Amino acid sequence: MVFVTMRIATCVAMIAAVGSTPVLARDSLSGFSIGALAATTQSPYLGRSESNGIVPVFRYEGERLTIGSNGFGFKVLDGPSSKLSFHLQPRLSPLHEPSEPELAGISRDHSADAAIFYEYRPSKTFEISTKLSKGLTAAQDGTELTVAARGLANVGFVPLVVSGGASWKSAALGQYYYGVKASEAIVGRAAYDVGATTTPFVSISSSAPLGNNLRVFGSVRVDFLGAAITGSPIVAKSAPVSATFGISYGF
Fold this sequence. Notes:
single chain; Porin
């Protein structure tokens, strides 16, 4: 059960990233789509190498409402160059009842976020996005601000979206992911307060049609964890890599 939860948490997090990244490579598809997503993520945590999984994904996109594997969204503004939307999304914790001995005694409950997402596209090949989210539960009430820029480059017939940005996490959210509470301290693992953190990231993604209704997509992302995070006694990797590959059918 713990391993399954880790896989779902990994995939849900990557669904959110992949769901917005290929926008420059194609127009948004309306209606329903179903498919499957395979994800592999190098874990930054001590005693854990990587998480792998395959999960089903679904999405409905209407004129204003979106419903999918990564939550609910409502479009307030949907213009040719600007988009503004509100979201309710799950935040599944990678530290929910971990099975590794090195993480024994540490557990974080799953949570949910309310978020505001804004996109500005001055051209067909460049986009800037900002996402501000706030935790809604007692388990996690932190704040996260993510700013990213994306550009489209074609390699032959393959469209590639190159992205770069940074994610700022409040002290509460940093502690949720990487901190050690006083009650979790043991011999060899001291209590640790992370504080607010900023994590730069880069990614490359692509999305391509296979016929009228079928589409394949993929993404590779690297997060660069700062000293405040890597100084935690439960963190062992400073630049974890995540990769996904998926296929979807729209109707």
